[in-house]
Amino acid sequence: MTTVSSAEHTRRDFLYIATGAVATVGAAAVLVPLINQMNPDASTIAAGAPVEIDLGPIAAGQIVKVFWRSKPIFIFHRTPNDIELAKKVDVASLRDPEPDSERVKAGHEQWLVVIGICTHLGCIPLPHEGNYDGWFCPCHGSQYDSAGRIRQGPAPKNLYLPPYKFVSNTKIRIG
């Protein structure tokens, strides 16, 4: 009678290891697609992704519209006159009192970035229109000044500010 010492590998040991390896590869082959299908698709990621805008080509007095998260964003390169008019307004007389300094980033007062949706019923106001040379909503008559503050009409709030920051003197990141 022959005995096999425990130090020697048998054919049975090889089959156990091979079966375990095939099972591991099979489990990975099933789990990887299962986990990947739970990730959002590229269009969903792009819809909420931050957007970088180069401010260099925007002339003084010009308002540019970009989109972020399917919302129109107005970027207004304000002139010194626009800034002066916005600062002169008596904040206590406003429906939604907010000084101009809280609506812009310090050191970049010439740039106003607002979400271009009227706070009354969600219309898109027209730039450089109305009595205050800001925005005018033709649907119901709301008028915003050059700081995006409600001055006249049924809108209850100022134009909302998106989350943004300056990444350089000529570039902002929204989101």
Description of the molecule:
The protein is of the alpha+beta class and 175 residues long. The protein has a single domain, classed as Rieske Iron-sulfur Protein (3-layer Sandwich), CATH 2.102.10. The chain has helices at 11-36, 42-48, 80-88; strands spanning 51-54, 63-68, 71-77, 111-115, 126-129, 134-136, 143-144, 150-152, 164-168, 171-174. The strands form three sheets. The protein has a four-stranded antiparallel β-sheet with strand order 5-6-7-8, with no helix packed on it. Strand 7 and strand 8 (150-152) form a beta hairpin. The protein is elongated.
Structural class: alpha+beta
Gyration radius, in Å? 30 Å
Approximate strand percentage: 15-25%
| Corresponding CATH architecture | 3-layer Sandwich
How many strands, what sense, and barrel or not for the largest sheet?
Answer: 4 strands, antiparallel
Write down the CATH class: Mainly Beta
Shape: elongated
**Total domain units:** 1
CATH H level, superfamily name: Rieske [2Fe-2S] iron-sulphur domain
Number of helices: 3
* CATH level 3 topology: Rieske Iron-sulfur Protein
Provide the residue-averaged pLDDT. 87
Q: Please provide the ordered H/E string of secondary-structure elements.
A: HHEEEHEEEEEEE
Helix content: 10-25%
